[in-house]
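Hello,

Our lab assistant flagged a job as stuck in the queue for most of the afternoon. It eventually completed. Since we weren't sure the result was trustworthy after the delay, we are filing this so someone can double-check. Below is the sequence as submitted and the structure that was eventually returned. Let us know if re-running is recommended.
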Amino acid sequence: MSFEFKQKFLILTSFFLLLALSGCLLKEKIVEKGGGEGVEKNLKLKMKNEKILMVVAPENFRDEEYQKPKEVLENAGYQVVTASKGVSVAKGMLGANISVDQDVISVNISDYSALVFVGGSGASVYFNDQVALNLAKEAISQGKVVGAICIAPSILANAGVLVGKSATCFSSEAGNLKAKGANYSGGSVTVDGEIVTADGPGSAEEFGRKILEVLGSN
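-- returned structure --
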């Protein structure tokens, strides 16, 4: 082996060692800032490209209860699909008009990692809607994450999936949850296994974060 070749070999070896060392130092810096685990988790989520179904009422869904969790979930890399009943554009209580991607009647819940029912006064349209109730039942039976906020936890209660589960909701629906076998917590956001419930628009962002946490632990 010539002296010139040895020099080139040593230079290349040193270069690759420096690259490896730089990668380790970068990882340490991320961990020191407390973001290592979260960054890694978010990267994994982005790679999954999983889908989440958010179900809104055709009209009078609560705007923040849709917009804030959707933003949290999309920022983590999930694809949010919006479903409703019989409309192509759903109307919010505060004036939002949102495009509907899919009618609830055509949903195959196995395509999704989570099912989220958005509240607002219009959500009562699903209280006794067999399609919506079956979606909730199927999601639970398939081990999906299921969320509901404001009055929408009554959809889950009426589907029979809150029996023995801790859950919260807008105060007007507390009696129904108790009557259907739920342990009403009265909290802002309550998590019991794969089920996440929240009490209203003021808890919408936290609701989204809790759904994200449960998805990340699956």
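-- support follow-up --
The delay was a queue issue, not a problem with the job. The result is valid. Residues 3-32 form the longest helix (30 residues). The two ends are 55 Å apart (CA to CA).
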